[in-house]
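ARCHIVE CARD
CATEGORY: sequence design from structure
SOURCE FIELD: tokenized fold
FIELD CONTENT:
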């Protein structure tokens, strides 16, 4: 199944188009972050949850533009060329196994950081989406549904698959996963995010379908959001 994916993608996307597809979201999202920081100024207050959720969702959706424009609109490809193909039940089970493995890796990384005396930069989800059930639903919508879909289309369906056609599967997994980790702007969590990216790219390469990778990504983000809101409702003693 995987043999038909790389040649088709390589035939559609040139090296120049891959570079443009990489630079466009970097420029737009980077500019948006700088603009948001400038508008916010020194005030620690965040905008209300709903506009902020829409802004985050829009920035994630920007990732879909290069694959859609370059592969589908400009070069006459289809969504199947970006990974939306059939898959086997075993591929989804493999995604669940990798999801569990990713947490053991994250735990091992946290233990290593603790031994080194380094505090991990754990993203604060609650300030972005607000507390309570409404904030939880907004976080699930933006962080556990839209973000995994957009990121898998871009990082695996477009970037990894395009690189694979030129440099081979293993180097493409490493390079696309490194970019995936840098995209999340977390220095102390960059290693587990990189490994997660490797899992997601390998799963796509092995299955030939983007759906198992999307499912793994959704599970990972939904679990993180769920834990954050459980800690809000049932805070540990002493906090």
């Amino acid at each position: 199944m995987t043999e038909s994916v790389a040649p088709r993608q390589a035939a559609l996307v040139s090296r120049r188009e891959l570079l443009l597809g990489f630079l466009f979201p970097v420029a737009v999202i980077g500019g948006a972050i700088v603009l948001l920081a400038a508008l916010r100024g020194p005030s620690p207050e965040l905008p209300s949850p709903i506009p902020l959720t829409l802004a985050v969702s829009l920035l994630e959706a920007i990732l879909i533009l290069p694959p859609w424009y370059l592969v589908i609109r400009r070069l006459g490809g289809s969504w199947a060329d970006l990974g939306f193909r059939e898959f086997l039940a075993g591929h989804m089970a493999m995604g669940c196994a990798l999801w569990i493995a990713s947490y053991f890796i994250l735990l091992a990384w946290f233990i290593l950081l603790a031994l080194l005396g380094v505090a991990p930069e754990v993203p604060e989800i609650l300030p972005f989406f607000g507390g309570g059930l409404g904030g939880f639903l907004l976080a699930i919508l933006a962080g556990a549904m839209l973000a995994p879909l957009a990121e898998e289309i871009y990082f695996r369906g477009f970037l990894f698959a395009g690189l694979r056609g030129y440099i081979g599967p293993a180097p493409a997994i490493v390079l696309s996963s490194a970019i995936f980790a840098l995209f999340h702007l977390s220095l102390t969590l960059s290693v587990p995010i990189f490994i997660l990216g490797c899992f997601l790219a390998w799963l796509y390469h092995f299955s030939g379908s983007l759906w198992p990778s999307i499912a793994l990504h959704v599970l990972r983000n939904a679990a993180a959001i769920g834990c954050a809101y459980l800690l809000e409702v049932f805070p540990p003693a002493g906090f």
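CARD ANNOTATION: The radius of gyration is 18 Å. Confidence is low (pLDDT under 50) at residues 1-7.
SHELF: design records, drawer C
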